Amino acid sequence: MPDRTTTLADHVRGRHRDDPGLAADLEIVLGAIAASARTLSRAIRRAAFTGELGLAGNENATGDAQKKLDLLANEAVVAALASSGLVAAIVSEEEDTARRLGTGKGARYIVCIDPLDGSSNTDVDGCVGTIFGLYRRLDGAPEPTSRDLLRRGSEQLAAGYVLYGPSTLLACTTGQGVSGFTLDEDRGEFLLTHETLRCPPRGRCYSANLGNLKGWHPHLRKYVDYLTEKDPGGRRPYSLRYTGALVADLHRSLIDGGLYFYPADSAHASGKLRLMYECAPLAFVVEQAGGRASTGMERILDVQAGSIHQRVPFVIGSVEDVILYERFLKDGGPA
């Protein structure tokens, strides 16, 4: 059991003793993300008092209505990462283009981030989150290039998410398993509370927006029928758990097993979720925890990004559950 005194910085240094330079960089960049999460945790809890609930009146780069907290979250993340001096640019859901931050040789990283996932939940006091992935730059040019920005998820150095719920939890990986850190509000620190997070091979819950069911591939409609059929020997029916916040639904699958899926539909032929700052970071986390993530046809971490706001179909969670989903999508049945 963790001793509840290990900080995120302590943990990173311990995991990367063999590469002190990388450990120092990860400590700074992940520390900046943690600092922005502390800021957001307080801002979310006080939003009803500070007038930060409700719509901002704008749309983001992919056409979603922006909430006031979306904009606050984006600026908190930008400020924290800019102060690190190590980040050349961020790719954010709330920015039309990559936002330039640091300059010079020291700015050797790219961060892809969804500052406030599930922001539609803010006005109903539901869970929300932050999703992030970290890449090392490939080019030495003064300005970040498309080669720096458009990557495969398998190239990530680190990834994680923050869940703002009854507590504030930061789960992350630097390629050596997944650990969870809970914000101790008295100390103002994220402390290690979940030393090793592992995704069970199978669960009994699924998360999906069934409002889109009629627009899905017929094979996936058959899959939902299969999940909800009564078959005690096969651990069915599965229970539906869907919050409208990807981070919250994914976290449930990571802890208890099961899967989350958001396939292509008649309104979103390429899927709805964004590859670079939603799907790829979470895929890295879940694979490091023993789970699986794909488009239904291809491993998410193998998908080469073609644009910073590229959308993809997405399924993620327990290995056996995701494999069964993929089988249904391909063949229309479990066998």
Overview of this protein structure:
The protein has helices at 8-15, 20-45, 47-50, 68-84, 146-149, 218-228, 246-256, 275-288, 319-331; strands spanning 55-59, 65-67, 87-92, 99-100, 109-117, 128-136, 158-164, 168-173, 178-184, 189-194, 205-207, 239-240, 259-262, 273-274, 292-294, 311-312, 314-317. The protein is of the alpha+beta class and 335 residues long. The chain folds into two domains: 8-194, Fructose-1,6-Bisphosphatase, subunit A, domain 1 (Fructose-1,6-Bisphosphatase, Chain A, domain 1, 2-Layer Sandwich); 205-331, D-Maltodextrin-Binding Protein, domain 2, CATH 3.40.190.80. It has an eight-stranded mixed beta sheet with strand order 4-3-5-6-7-8-9-10, with helices on both faces. Strands 12-11-13-17-15 form a five-stranded mixed beta sheet, sandwiched between helices. Strand 8 and strand 9 (178-184) form a beta hairpin. Helix 1 packs antiparallel against helix 2 (20-45), helix 2 packs antiparallel against helix 4 (68-84) and helix 6 crosses helix 9. The mean pLDDT is 94.
Helix/strand layout:
Layout: H1 8-15, H2 20-45, H3 47-50, E1 55-59, E2 65-67, H4 68-84, E3 87-92, E4 99-100, E5 109-117, E6 128-136, H5 146-149, E7 158-164, E8 168-173, E9 178-184, E10 189-194, E11 205-207, H6 218-228, E12 239-240, H7 246-256, E13 259-262, E14 273-274, H8 275-288, E15 292-294, E16 311-312, E17 314-317, H9 319-331
Helix pairs in contact: 1-2, 2-4, 6-9
